[in-house]
Amino acid sequence: MEQCAPVGDGGRTCQAGAWDDAVSRVLRTALTDVDDMRGNADFRRELLASLHHRADLPDWKSPANGPRGEDDIAELVHACRTYREPRTALAAVDAFLQDRRGNERTVAWFGLCVQAVVSPGILGTQRMHRIFTALRRIERLPESLEVARYADACRAARLNVPLAGPTDLFRALERLNDAQRGPGTRPAIHRFLQLLAQDVPEPAASALLEVAGGPLPAAVPRLRPAEIIVQLRLEEVEAAPSETPRYQVHGAFYSHEEGSLRELDSWIDPRKVTEEELLRHGSSLLTGWGDLAYEIRDYRTRVRFEFLLPWSLLDHAVDLWTVTPYVLGHQYPVVVRSLDRHKNFWMHAMWRRRWDELAAQGCPPPPASATDHIAWMTHLKDRSVPAGGARRFPSLRFSSVGEVTQWLKAHSSLACIGVGFAYGHPDALAQQAIEEAVAKGIPVLVWRRDDGDPCELDTALRGRALSRLDELPLGTQSLREAAETRPANDLGRHITLLWDDPNCVAQLQHGMYQGVG
Predict the structure, then answer these.
(1) Whose CA is closest to 212, among 183, 184, 182, 176?
(2) For the whole prediction, is pTM greater than 0.70?
(3) DSSP states of 74-119 as a string?
(4) DSSP class of residue 312?
(5) Which helix (H) or strand (E) holds 12?
(6) Distance CA 134, CA 205 (A)
(7) Is the CB of residue 250 less than 8 Å from the CB of residue 260?
(8) I need a labelling partner for 358 at 20 to 30 A (CA). Which of 12, 91, 157, 449 fits?
(9) Which of 517, 370, 357, 380 is nearest to 454 (CA)?
(10) If you write DSSP's letter for every residue of 13-73 in order, what string do you get?
(11) CB count, 10 Å around CB of 2?
């Protein structure tokens, strides 16, 4: 490190440099990338005046009048390096640039290089510079959602992680590099770099692993959530009885692992729209959700879209919402959930009990199918419903809601109902029967929105060879995808699956502004 001492009439003498030539090269390169530093002599003179005021750098001569400033920049870095307080001088250069050009990406990069000199931390200046140099070549870097996941994984490994709330990648690296090492543990910065290396391309990944001391141990799995759950809640807003109902959209998505949800992002759209406007409006909201699109860009990540709907929207075709250029239901499993049941805690005990019955169902041996666990019901006299065979539950043809209630009581382990009519059927008894099934805890219902033949739906689901009922979301998505190139009246374009997992609910979500559950 440089040692500078005053001599003679106010001059100074300097021995070894405050940093080596490799660090100087990094600083020069970063400064040269700042447009005004390279090509604007007036800007460099303004910087010189500022430095003389703040740190008194007599060794930096007045900038030349030439159109390019590489020589001036080299002189500036050398002047800082040979100053009696080199880090103070360098920090003064950074402070000036941040104040005048702080919104420029190149200035931000220079600031990172300066911070590594001013505060070398655990890794030291040169290794931090190697990290920044490697990452700078990457077009799109991991965002705060990934940073939070890396931090959580470091905490799980009992490492000291001084991060709280959303943090961008470089602030996280700086804080981890400055953190105190926990007793008997490696610093968290090494594990963080190993995790980061999994999500960046070469040659940056190798550079990070070299600094980190090697890749993650084989026993540590790749850091990817087991599943991403996207929940959209459509709240009906208060309106006069004579007015058309309007709805407000709340969105959030979660990492879903081992029965627990961790929120990654959420928002509330302030606009209030009618049902007719929902398809276009909702599609626009989804298409513009950049954080979600980035999170699910890896084709290996399992994703499910869940729409929490009030009674008035339970038949809304949410699977036909689009994420440009795709129809949502063609790309992902899309299910609906009962918003009214979520809000009514009195319904939850029966709901959870029937869900546990569904979860306990095993794989039936061939030729039986998981769809044999679906019980069918209808009130329409001219309509057949699937029956017979190896079905576990009898079908129901009812003429009153009371008959539905008795049927549900008689089959306490029933968890999935196939509905032989549309929720939007003009007969009020249709809607009442579905609402009674929800109130009595049935977690899964499936029907055709076009009020078509339920036997055709049963046959199509059987054709998916489902081994367990928990494969229904993927089975219906398969039918929707197959319908993409078929006529508009194809069955796959008209399936609603109510799939309501009571365990897939984030804590404290039931308030107006607490997520979307």
Answers:
(1) 176
(2) no
(3) HHHHHHHHTSSSHHHHHHHHHHHHHHHHTTSHHHHHHHHHHHHHH-
(4) G
(5) strand 11-14
(6) 8
(7) no
(8) 449
(9) 380
(10) EE-S-SS-HHHHHHHHHHHHTSHHHHH-HHHHHHHHHHHHHHT--TTSPPPPSSS--HHHH
(11) 15
User: What is the distance between the alpha carbons of residues 27 and 498, in angstroms, rounded to a whole number?
Assistant: 59
Structure tokens at 513: 């502004």
| DSSP class of 298 | S
267 neighbors 239 (Cβ within 8 angstroms): no
Question: DSSP class of residue 199?
Answer: T
DSSP assigned state of 273: B
* CB 417, CB 397: distance < 8 Å: no
Sign of CA dihedral 29, 35, 38, 42: negative
Q: Give dist(CA 278, CA 289) in Å, integer.
A: 16
Name the packing angle between helices 70-81 and 41-54 (round to 10°).
Answer: 10
Of 381 and 517, the structure prediction assigns the larger pLDDT to: 381
CB 120 within 8 A of CB 1: no
Q: Return the number of other C-beta atoms located less than 10 Å from residue 217's C-beta.
A: 7
The answer to whether 253 and 506 have CB atoms below 8 angstroms apart is no
* Distance of alpha carbon 401 from alpha carbon 272, whole angstroms: 34
Q: Tally Cβ neighbours within 10 Å of residue 384.
A: 14
Contact 251, 267 (CB under 8 A): yes
CB of 409 closer than 8 Å to CB of 442? no
Q: Are the C-beta atoms of 124 and 20 separated by less than 8 Å?
A: no
Reported as a single tens digit per residue, the pLDDT across 415-462 is 999 999 999 888 899 999 999 999 999 999 999 999 999 999 999 998
Task: Work out the percent of the chain whose per-residue pLDDT is above 70.
Answer: 85
Q: Are 496 and 454 in contact (CB under 8 A)?
A: no
Measured CA distances, 516 to 151, 237, 460, 506 (Å):
25, 15, 32, 9
Distances (CA, A) of 312 to 267, 274, 315, 500: 23, 11, 8, 17
Phi then psi for residue 438, to 5 deg, are: -65, -45
Strand partners, 506: none
- Which residue from 359, 146, 164 is spatially nearest to 255, judged by alpha carbons? 146
In Å, how far are 260, 340, 351, 407, 499 from 502, measured between CA atoms? 11, 13, 7, 23, 10
